[in-house]
Write a structure and sequence with these properties.
The protein has 143 residues and is α+β, with helices and mostly antiparallel strands. The chain folds into two domains: 92 residues, Alpha-Beta Plaits (2-Layer Sandwich), CATH 3.30.70.60; 49 residues. Helix content is 54%, strand content 33%. A four-stranded antiparallel sheet has the order 2-3-1-4, covered by helices on one side. A hairpin with a 2-residue loop joins strand 2 and strand 3. The protein is elongated.
């Protein structure tokens, strides 16, 4: 039987983007090879920690939501513990209420992302129209 889980881990702030992606891919591979299905992934970026951890005041936050057998969680957390790039982590089992909230959050985020993409496309189109009008007005001045 597979349960729903959510894992948030904090990576050291000295990592490059490539190193951060490699670390996340490593843990996704651990989950996938154990038979887990990754439902959602979020990169929360560099955030300030509430208190210093290992003399660090910031860290890269990453969230993974997945479906897995309970036996895989111990292996996953062991891998997190062994990796020196990870400062802290928390894995929680999602009950039906938390799962419902997580699904609503994912839908809201995907809606916001689609809205931002539409706005960006609209802005590009407006800039192109402004440039075209400017070029046409310059051509009219030359005549």
């Amino acid at each position: 039987m597979q349960n729903n889980y959510e894992a948030v881990f904090i990576m050291t702030p000295v990592l490059s983007d490539q190193q951060m992606k490699e670390a996340v891919d490593k843990f996704k591979t651990v989950l996938s090879s154990g038979g887990a299905e990754i439902v959602h992934e979020e990169n929360w970026g560099l955030k300030k920690l509430a208190y210093p951890v290992n003399h660090k005041t910031t860290g890269f936050y990453q969230l993974l939501q997945f479906k897995s057998a309970p036996e895989l969680i111990k292996k996953f957390e062991t891998e997190l513990k062994r990796d020196e790039r990870i400062i802290r982590w928390l894995t929680v089992s999602l009950d039906k209420h938390a799962l419902e909230y997580a699904q609503k959050r994912i839908q809201r985020l995907s809606g916001q992302k689609a809205q931002k993409e539409a706005e960006a496309t609209e802005n590009v189109a407006q800039e192109a129209n402004k440039e075209q009008v400017t070029v046409e007005s310059e051509n009219n001045k030359e005549e």
